[in-house]
Amino acid sequence: MSTLKAKSKKQRIIEATNVDELLDIQFGKIGTKNRDDFEEKAQYFVISEMLKEARKEANLTQEQLANKVGTKKSYISRLENGKCDIQLSTLYRIFETGLGRKINLLIG
User: Fold this and answer.
1) Which of 11, 14, 24, 99 has the most other CB atoms within 10 Å of its CB?
2) How many domains are contained in the chain?
């Protein structure tokens, strides 16, 4: 029975026509715990990559950025690796004070 299930899932993946269908198959429909967990991790990844890219474009090391915003290098490293939560005020401070970038929050 499990072979049929796995084959069925594989077949559905092959036949998927867009990313949303793939996400539904792999992680469940929007609103399910598994999908919510995936979406949260994906958002952390996006933020961490944006932070890392902006820091590198500003030619700053993690330590230099940490000093500019009054935090520790280890905290910047954890943020860039998606290993910790960040408060919105800290995110603004890092981007605006530390990196000289404006950020906008869009809630959809």
Assistant:
1) 99
2) 2
- CA 66/CA 60 separation, integer angstroms: 10
Is there a single domain that holds both residue 52 and residue 16? Answer: no
Whether 48 and 82 have beta carbons less than 8 Å apart is answered as yes
Judge if 22 and 46 occupy the same domain: no
Other beta carbons within 10 angstroms of residue 39's beta carbon come to: 13
What is the pLDDT, as a whole number, of residue 2?
A: 52
> Is the domain of 9 the same as that of 53?
no
Instruction: For residues 36-64, give the mean pLDDT.
Output: 94
| Alpha carbons within 13 A on the beta-carbon side of 4 | 1
The answer to whether residues 67 and 55 touch, using CB atoms and an 8 Å cutoff, is no
